[in-house]
Prior knowledge:
Blueprint: H1 2-20, H2 25-48, H3 61-71, H4 80-100, H5 105-122, H6 129-139, H7 142-147, H8 150-170, H9 185-203
Amino acid sequence: MIKNRIKRGLRVSRYVIYKETLVDFKEHFWSFTGAFIGIGLIAFFQSKILTQFENIFLIGSFGASSVLVYGAIQSPLAQPRNLIGGPVISAFIGVTIYKLLPDIIWITAPLAVSLSIVMMQITKTLHPPGGATALIAVAGSEKIKALGFLYVISPVLTGSLILLVVALIFNNITSHRKYPTNQFFTRSLIRGLRRYPKRAKQTV
């Protein structure tokens, strides 16, 4: 039974890798457009409205979130619940850890990231950039640290909402993209696995 599960896992991995490496210029176009506008809006608000905060609003974890919500929209980790919940929970944990242990970076950094992962798992909001969001809260610039719990609201929640709104628009413009992922995604994956050998032969 274990051997069968391993084989099935390998088939799933091969299928996912096969799909991700297909050259689909339309898919690339919409991924580029969504990411460009999402990050562009965050940068616009930063440069035009929040200039007194320097680059606080444009944190690095938004770039990682964009990879998921515009480039891997069918991933469970890219869904709205994860995009919003994961970073917000991680930001709250990061700020809390920093306030409790402000001067012990070798404890606060790993503690913030590890606790964030566990809490995202518990709340089913796992979002990889959340780890970076927590880390920024304890290891970022002094201006970010000075925000305190405001960091959870802005930039984290506000920026995540901007990315979500853009994703809901640009990931649903064409019939080939649907976001959030529908409830039949797993069934579609299974059907794709069954057709995979035939598709693979056609590409040879």
